[in-house]
Structures are given as C-alpha cells and as structure tokens.
Structures
1.
Amino acid sequence: MKNLQELFVHEIKDLYSAEKQLIEALPKMVKTASDSKLKKAFSRHLDETKQQFATLKDICDQMDINPGNTKCDAMEGLIKECEGLISEDAKAAVKDAGLIACAQRIEHYEISGYGTSVQYAKTLGHEKIAVMLDEILDQESNCNEELNDLAVYGINKKAV
Ligand SMILES: [Fe+2]
C-alpha cells in the first residue's frame, strides 16, 4: 500500500467482510437470546446489518473496489468467542448478559472501523462516501447504546 487511498480500500474490504460474517452470526444470537427486548434488538440489528452490507457493496461499486475474498480476522475471532458463549451451559439471564458483552465487543470494533473510514474518506475528498459511512457509524453507535441500556437497566440484574 503506497498511500491513504489504498489503506482506505483495505479498510472498506475489511468492513465488507466483517458485515458479511455478522449477517451469518446474528441469527444464532437472535435465537439464543431469551429476553424479548434483547431478541428484538438483535433481530433489528440483523436487518440493519443487511442494509449496511448493501451500502458497502454500493460503495465498492462506486469506487471500483473488488472486495474479493478478503477476510476480517478480527470479526471471525469475535464471532468465535460469541459462539463459545452460546455453547456454554448457562442460565438464560446469564447467557443474555454474556451475549450483550459479545455483541458490544463487535459494535466497538465496528465503531472503530467506520470511525477511521469516515475520516479517511473525508481526507481523501470522497464526501458522498463519507456521508454513507457516517450513517452506518451512527447506527453502530445507537446499537451499542441500546445494548448498554438493556444490560445496565435490566439484564445484568436478572443475571445476579
Ligand atoms: Fe455493522
């Protein structure tokens, strides 16, 4: 990679792979969650993630990026941890609390990735792309806050 543009392309490919993997993992999280609000939050985020993936595809088309087989190793690891928790023998409320912890790790990772990409896009003068990425960043932040509220104002206490 010789410049910020190439690093930006690398970031976009990474996010593309991350969202793609998450689309496959979220249904298991929806299924495992016991708390109805948590189930709903995960299933809403699955819909959102599908839209985000479509937006990334759009960005790739606009910028002539071929996402190819680039794999986001970090997302693979985060999902593996989540699957580990899902297979644990744990009380429902405890599993819910653990699922939130896994999901928030994922959101924090995505917030970091989109935050960086928005700034690269701005620096490189890709204004329209920056706006598209910033919208996803907002969704990830909102999702993280929603999960945080569910944990702090209910699920963690249920798990005590
Ligand atoms: Fe996402």
Note: The chain has one domain: 4-159.
2.
Amino acid sequence: MPNSIKDTIKLADGNQMPMEGFGTYKLTDQDTMDAAIKTAFESGYRLFDTAQFYNNEELLGNSIKKLKINRKEIFLTTKIPEPKQGYQSTLDAIDESLEKLQTDYIDLLLVHWPIHSQFFDTWRAFEKAKAEGKVKSIGVSNYHQTHLDLLSTTADEMPVVNQIEDHPYLTQEPMIEANKQRNILTQAWSPMGRGATLNDATIKDIAENHGKSTAQIILRWHLQRGIAIIPKSSNPERIKQNADIYDFNLSDEEMKQISALDKQQRTGDDPEIVYEIEHQYPTH
Ligand SMILES: NC(=O)c1ccc[n+]([C@@H]2O[C@H](COP(=O)([O-])OP(=O)(O)OC[C@H]3O[C@@H](n4cnc5c(N)ncnc54)[C@H](OP(=O)(O)O)[C@@H]3O)[C@@H](O)[C@H]2O)c1
C-alpha cells in the first residue's frame, strides 16, 4: 500500500511505476494542459497518462518542457489506437508519439483496445520497441481474459499492466484476479466512473465519516484493493484533492460496502465489441 503519491510499485518486468497518476483525456488546449500539469506535478503526481486518440501528446510534451521537469522524474504512458495497429504502422506510431511527447523513451506503452485483425502483429511491434529501448514497459488496455490467453499463445513477453475501466459501479473482480494470476497490474481508467459514482449515497455516508470527499473515498478504495489509478481533473482544487488520499484508511466493512455497489455499468464500450468491429464507439 503506497504511503504517498510518489510511491512506486515494481512491475513484473522489474520497472517501477507510481500507483497513482494523472489522466489527461479531454485536456485539449495548451493553456488548460499547462495549468493542469503544473498543479499535478506540484501536488506530487509523477505519472501522466495520454494516448494518440486523445490528440494531446504534443500538448503534454510542451507542458513538461515549459515546466523544465527532469524526464527521469516522471513516468509517461501512451497508447496505440486501433487505426495505427499492425506491425510497421505500430512502429511508425511509436516514433510519432516520441516526437510529440518530445522524449526518447516511453515508460509504458499500451495497446489501447484489442482488435482481431492486427492482434498479434501489434504485440510483436511492442516487443521490438521494448528491445530497442524506445519503450521501457509494454502493456495492454481493455483486454478481457480471453484476449490475454490468446496473446499468451505467441507472446515472448506478456503485458505488465492491463488498464481497464474500473470503479464502484463496475468493480471488475474476476478481471482483476485474472490479471493478478498472470502477474499483470490492473490500472483503473475512469476510476470515478467519469463522475457517475460521485453522488452515490453509500459513498457519501462513508465520506462524511472520514471528513473526505466521495472522490477521495473512491480513489482510496482502489488503492486499498491494490489497483493503480489515473484520475483526471482540469480543476486545480480537485487535482490536489485527488492526490490527498494518503492520510486515512477505509475499514474492511467500508471496503465491502463500496465493492457491493457493482452494477456492471460501463462508461465505455465492451472490449469484446471493439475486438470484433475494430474501433471504439460503435454507436457514435
Ligand atoms: N484506456 C482507456 O481506454 C481509457 C478510457 C478512458 C479514460 N482513460 C484514462 O483514464 C483517465 C481517467 O478517466 P476519466 O477521465 O474518463 O474519468 P474519471 O477520472 O473517473 O473522472 C473524471 C471526471 O470526474 C471529475 N472529477 C475529477 N476529480 C473530481 C473530484 N475530486 N470531485 C468531483 N469531480 C471530479 C472531472 O471533472 P473536472 O475535470 O471538471 O474536475 C471529470 O469530469 C483519463 O483521463 C484517461 O487518461 C483511459
């Protein structure tokens, strides 16, 4: 259990990763990004999560440069989107990310969503980029157990992280256990259900008992389950608040009450559908 936001955990490949990081989805203008990254860095966040799909890698790279942050002090995650998957196109996409982020390595590269046609070739490119040192750790996002099993039939190295949607309304116990069995750390995206879980009556009661916000209770619940988190906010007070979760403990009973709120409610697509149709948001 981390004692501070700067604490790291050892991944299966031996690299260290902070358990809490900062999500950047929907931060799409430079001023907002600059302000958010400055507050986040000052509040102790050291992991920054972006993706080619968010269209903001360059903005994040610019913010880091402006703040004169030492590259070794931070951990950068980015993701390869569905249209860029495949062997050569993934290798080319990695070079694009390096250029936009203005760095010579990515700490953690994730396959954003599994897709059936490029499934094995994309992973071969990930293994090559890691061997070349362009990427320190390789992982996946939105992989079900069947996708991990399929990958294991040809992979030389298995992913060390699986970033999945996870929050009190989608608690993901079987998937978390499946990751654990394979030495894969679960990292929660939309850890607060993109806001959907913040007004829950049970969580509000627990928050009042601790003198904390519902967001802080939810983020603490993730950490006490051993799940890494990447909350996003563009609001300075909320960015600080989400980092201030290391001075209290939820009881076993409170942990159980929150886990019992599961209702299989997704904010994003079901990975199985994306795997079949090969892109996100089929209904949009
Ligand atoms: N791998 C994937 O497929 C995938 C998919 C989605 C997201 N992600 C990653 O996960 C990160 C987090 O997920 P997310 O942005 O979807 O959802 P989230 O972090 O669960 O929730 C963000 C929302 O909650 C609000 N919020 C944040 N802190 C709050 C607080 N303390 N009190 C009240 N409201 C608060 C934010 O609004 P304000 O900004 O106004 O504070 C925003 O609307 C993303 O930024 C992205 O990096 C990955």
Note: The first strand starts at residue 8 and ends at 10.
